[in-house]
Design brief:
This protein is of the alpha/beta class. It contains seven helices and seven strands. Helix 4 (113-141) links the parallel strand 4 and strand 5 (145-150).
Length: 272
Amino acid sequence: MARPLQGQVAFITGAARGQGRAHAVRLARDGADIIAVDLCDQIASVPYPLGTSEELAGTVKLVEETGARIVARQADVRDRAALGAALQAGIDELGRLDIVVANAGIAPMQSGDDGWTDVIDVNLTGAYHTVEVALPTLKEQGAGGSIVLISSAAGLAGMASADAGAIGYAASKHGLVGLMRVYANLLAPHNIRVNSVHPSGVATPMINNEFTMKWLADMAASGAGTGGGNALPVQILQADDIANAVAWLVSDQARYITGVALPVDAGCVNKR
C-alpha cells in the first residue's frame, strides 16, 4: 500500500473529533506522524458541547492503529504561547514538521456579541497563531511544506443570519482566505504551499447538535443566505470527504498548487 506521506509529520488543530480527527487518521494512513491539539474545554458562547479529552484520546487510538506515531496535547489556539509549547512537544518527540492543518473552529451561530468575539478569536486568530508557531521550524528545515486552512463554504458566500455569532462565523471563514493568500505569497520562496479548503455542511458534532440544526432549519425556512443547499444530490458531506481533499493537497501530487481556495462542497457555492 502506497504511503505518500511516509517520514513526514503533520500538525493538526481541533483534532479531538470531527474533521480534525478525520484529517489525523487519513494523513496517518498515508504515512505521516501526527501532532494533535485540541482545547478539550467549553467556550461559554458556544451552545453545543465541544471536544473532550476522552475524544482526543480516541483520536490517539485511531492514529496508533494505523501504525503511525502521535503526540497529543490540550491547548487553546487563542493562546499562542500554549499552542507553541504543544507543537514543540510534538517536534521534540517526532523530530520534524512538514504539514500544518489549521482546523480548529467553532460555530456559535445563535450567539450575540460574545459569539462574534469568540468565533473571530478561535477561527481566524487561532489559524494565524497556528501558522505562526509552525513557521520557524518549517523555514529552518529548508525542506518546504504544506499548510491548509480549513475554511467553509461560508468563507466564499454570504451565508449568515442576523445573529452576531453567525456573522462572525462567515467573517472569520472569509478572513481565512485573505490569510491564506498572503501566506501563499510570503512563503512561496521557502517552497511552503498554503491553500484553504471550503466544505459545505459536514456530518460532525459542530453540525449534528440541536442548536446548529435548529439554526440551519430556521435559515432554510426563511431563505436568508441559504440559496437552496448543495447542487449535487447530497444533503451533507462526511468528514472523510474533506480529509481526502486535504490529503491530496498536502501530497506531492499537488506540489505546484498554492494560493487556492478549494471548495469541497457538492456545488454549494457555485449554486449561489
